[in-house]
Every structure is written in C-alpha cells, then in structure tokens.
What we know:
By secondary structure, the chain is mostly helical. The protein is built from eight helices and no strands. The protein folds into two domains: about 5-50; about 60-175, Orthogonal Bundle (MetI-like fold). Helix content is about 75%, strand content about 0%. The protein starts with a helix and ends with a helix.
Amino acid sequence: xxxxxxxxxxxxxxxxxxxxxxxxxxxxxxxxxxxxxxxxxxxxxxxxxxxxxxxxxxxxxxxxxxxxxxxxxxxxxxxxxxxxxxxxxxxxxxxxxxxxxxxxxxxxxxxxxxxxxxxxxxxxxxxxxxxxxxxxxxxxxxxxxxxxxxxxxxxxxxxxxxxxxxxxxxxxxxx
Length: 175
C-alpha cells in the first residue's frame, strides 16, 4: 500500500509529464526546438547513456563534477575556517576583515559566475571559484560564531593557568 505522500508525489510527476506532453507534442504551443517532447528527451537520454557525450561517458562527467565540487569545498574549508577562527579570536582582525566580508556576504554564489568567467575563463578554475565562494562564506560564519560562543571563563582559566597560545588554539578554540 502506497502512503498518501507517495500518491501525491506520483500524481504530481504524472501531471507535470502530461503538461509537458501537451505543451510540446499534442498542441504544438511550444516548438520542439525550444523544449523537446518526452519522446525526444527519452531518445537523447538513451543516446547519452549508451554512447556518452563530448567524448566521455556519463559516469566520467559525473566523477569530474564531483572532483570539482570536492576541490572547491576543500579550498573553501582551508581558507574559510582559519579566517573565521582568526576573526573570532582577534578583534583587530575582525575589525579589518568584517566590513569587507559583510559586503560580499549577501552576494549569491551564482552572481559570481560572470566574474569567474571574466577572470578565469571557461575552464575548471572558474567552476571551482564559484563552488569555493558558495562554501567559503558559511565556513567563515560558522567558525567565527564557534569561537565567539566559547565561554569566556574557559579562555580566562586557560590564560590564568599559563596555557601557551598554540595549545589554546588547538584544544579550546579549534574544536
């Protein structure tokens, strides 16, 4: 027995497919050059799955995309977390970096695409830059908030006990 939510989901998919078919094939309101019919889509999908696209199989394209996402995320983590920790730890760094960060923070990652293409071209570097920006902003915010939410008595107790700065960062700030 299918649950109520699954029935609604299946009905929605069926309605979208019917609307797609009506707009493209049956009525001809939308030309197939602009929006392919379900049959044309099926043929193209089968062709891509069997022969590949642009000299590579679909799995190779998916793996390449995953590699780009991993690289962009890794660079964002490697740059964003240290910056957020530093901003949270040192008020002077926060005073210097935060105004710039507050300017770029509300810009959606997709808005960086034209600049990424202009600066880095159409290659993988531009894609990695957009992914980097999408992950960089949240990592800075979360690292900054994490440092700022550490209880002051913990930091003061560590200072009172003469804990070296590197050990405070490693055992109190970073975790």
